[in-house]
User: Fold Chloride channel protein from Cryomyces minteri.
Amino acid sequence: MAQQRPPMIYYSAAGSGVAEVKVILSGFVLHGYLGMKTLTFKTLGLILSVSSGLSLGKEGPYVHIATCIGNVACRMFSKYSHNDGKRREVLSASAASGVAVAFGAPIGGVLFSLEEVSYYFPPKTLFRTFFCCIVAALSLKFLDPYGTNKIVLFEVRYMTDWKFFEMIAFILLGILGGATGALFIKASRVWAQTFRRLTLVKNWPILEVMLVALTTGLVSFWNRYTRLPVTELLFELASPCDTFTHTGYGLCPTEGRIPNVVGYLCIAFVIKAILTVITFGIKVPAGIYVPSMVVGGLLGRIVGHMVQYMALKYAGSGIFSNCPADGNPEACVVPGVYALVAAGATMCGVTRLSVTLAVILFELTGSLDHVLPFSIAVLVSKWTADALEPLSIYDLLTDMNSYPFLDNKVRPVFTTELGDITQRPRPERVIDISNSPLVHAKELRQKLEYLQMAGELDGGLPIIRESVLVGLIPAPDLEFALDKLGSEDSSLCLMSMHTRWNGLEDETSDAVDLTDFTPYIDPAPVALAVHSPMDLVYECFVKLGLRYICVLRDGQYAGMVHKKAFVKYVKHLVGQAA
Amino acid sequence: MAQQRPPMIYYSAAGSGVAEVKVILSGFVLHGYLGMKTLTFKTLGLILSVSSGLSLGKEGPYVHIATCIGNVACRMFSKYSHNDGKRREVLSASAASGVAVAFGAPIGGVLFSLEEVSYYFPPKTLFRTFFCCIVAALSLKFLDPYGTNKIVLFEVRYMTDWKFFEMIAFILLGILGGATGALFIKASRVWAQTFRRLTLVKNWPILEVMLVALTTGLVSFWNRYTRLPVTELLFELASPCDTFTHTGYGLCPTEGRIPNVVGYLCIAFVIKAILTVITFGIKVPAGIYVPSMVVGGLLGRIVGHMVQYMALKYAGSGIFSNCPADGNPEACVVPGVYALVAAGATMCGVTRLSVTLAVILFELTGSLDHVLPFSIAVLVSKWTADALEPLSIYDLLTDMNSYPFLDNKVRPVFTTELGDITQRPRPERVIDISNSPLVHAKELRQKLEYLQMAGELDGGLPIIRESVLVGLIPAPDLEFALDKLGSEDSSLCLMSMHTRWNGLEDETSDAVDLTDFTPYIDPAPVALAVHSPMDLVYECFVKLGLRYICVLRDGQYAGMVHKKAFVKYVKHLVGQAA
Assistant:
């Protein structure tokens, strides 16, 4: 597969990587995705892609980079490298610290890890993740890369509290932001399935990058807002106007010039929205968080200025009765708040994060008064987006790449039981030791190859004696044990530790080696009765993190269900319901 | 039990109730604890206890009251009243909204629910809890009970950023706060085991309340700080001084008067600490959050003024090189920050909450700069407190009341397997249908009574046929089914649906009623092999929320482990390790 692709491209380093981190934390293995090579290439590539001025963010890749660091660090300690659960805990905390550093929002990082990437998050992991994020934020404070002595990406301070009539506008922004986010996902899908399928683009991803860069340059240069780097633009959009900057130009217009500014912002909105769609998915390290916030910020600023215009025009009457007609145009309506509210709503529409976004926005502003507007817009946005498009951007990527990911957010309504998806046991998929605890190595190799052909590299072979399940040997362990054998032709492998057979001595002649495979055997694989409700099966896969479940009927072995088969079944169910 | 207690006291309404809510959410039933009666009594009682001026808070009881409301509301909808999982989700969200309203911190509420009360918290519940907290905060904003148009309990704003040398002080405050919290727990235990065991106090809890109230009145009146209500005192302690209030008196002293103020605060600290210990646990609705924060706040303010004194005395030299000698005494060190940092650290020592506290402190101040000091103090405090006293205040209450709660935070290191704690199957604890699927109702009643004597009201009776587990009937269902029978003497109950026996017709003469019990039977109880590692058993109890696990040996029924027995085993293990 990799050989057919152009040699200059290292696919693991492209994109944001958040979807893949999520899949890895759910228990699947994407080989090399969190390795040293990815770390190096992604870090170098990110410097180039961010400084190019394309409509992309560095926040998502930060998560991937931080997770790589966590993974590489794990390899140094056997406690973590040998224990998958422990390692995942470290990876969760690393991903959190990525967000903490990207936004300068340590608590937002903790919630990101909880809400987006982690599969199971007990309070102990919460505390450790929190610790990791605080240490990350402290390092940032000491290193002071922005030179402001602040850790936040940017900081805006609103001194004016919001008025009750603005609640309508905030709800509207939630709807618009959610819809924009959902449409972005739909547009991304269409773009990936049409333009990116063209033979030329498919074979030459670098060509696509160059085309996008060229388009961005040509289109963006003529509008002040599209020319700015994304983070700076978002900061400008979200900022309130100090009274002295009310020159009537730029983002702080006087009443008469508002229509003009709105027109200018509308053009920027259209350009930025299109650029973000065509940029997302090109093969450079690129995140979607801040670009989606910028698109939302433009939208919010447009709405904000329109509300501001009305408040100035109809000042003192109706719902604007408390707004002064003269003086500071921001006395009543601060368009910067609208920009940040819509930025959060749009990012929610794209990622479907909720509490995390409310916290990050809060950490960017420190405005106690505005926690409620942010939160309400995020809530409304999530409902709107979920109604228009059930998949978040990460679900879309997971789906397009066919990663075997069992979503723990949407749980289908099950009416079936385990027996309905259990395959009957076939002799090539079990190790039967009814006659003898000794099995020929050749036979084991055959069974292993059969399993590998079925794509169940991470599966296992149950060991049964007179139809009773007495153990299970995981496929990777069996492979390891067989590979260690000198000669497979003449080896007999001991597959049971509990019972001694009578004829054991007779059977082992001098010509064969007797090898003990019992250390590799799991003596108590998780087994459920055939009538177990599917809800229990779901919980076992999601909460216990199992890869396969053995099935028993009246105490006897009756088959096995692999997680992949279960994921397929759940996807089918959800697909039917949608 | 209730009859032996004095009639005037309704025990469910006393205390904070957070420990009990936690136990209920872990899956156990405390009858009537979340009912209408508790709701009414606790609300009325809380008004009286808070206005009494005792050293107690309203925040914990808010959690209990909110959970009662959630529970009463659940009863109106069959979707929630009949589904225990759904109901617990509502209760989680209610508890969160209690904290959200108490502190005016909606995000803090979400984290409280996650970190303290909920047993299992998937992202879907997170979003719903968030929604509930935002609605609660919005109601608060509209109702505006404080008349400030703000939702927060109190709001402090620090305009001065912290200096690096202060980090040492913040770490020290974390240690002191954690130690204070741990000592508070130890003192509470001693007080409960000595004074509260006195016959007079035990039989007349009202006497204790009166004694505590009398002591509080006599001791508190003479010191300005101890006389203030707890919330107001905390607000004063945490507030920065505006320049014009530097009269040299009160909490904003000039350099020369600092030792004086520190002395006055020390007296207040000692009084308040002792009052809080003797107040906690009296039989009135009373929380510990704000009182513990006040004790910590006094401690922090003492340290803060001492650091301030040094900074003023040695201004311009050494670590104080950036501090001006004259002018505003708070130019370098703001003692209010120290007070809030120590308040958080002490509350952490008492409750062992971490992220929640950092968020609540952040929501009270909105100070981006101070997120790091708060968080670091909380982290250090948690370590210190855990080292001095492994139990949080809720664990202490849970232990003292012997609630069967399986702590999902501290997981012991298991080296054993399931077989080590499995009791051999005894004939009176199983229903054997090897000979016939029909069992006499009298026999079933005997088995049920045996189970009830063993204290396993929520247990179950496994159904076995020729040593193979074919089903299980939960004790409450069996009781319900037996109670519905007209006459137990002559009834035969059908206990298996899957196989038809040959002699079925012969056996059922006209004299007996044949009753079908199969609808009550769980055809697939969760069963694990006898060699399953104890870690898996732990995960099944904690994550799957099981009440009992059947045990199989080579496919045959080999016993049963009830959650209570497992909790006892885990407590024993943890006790040995400590």
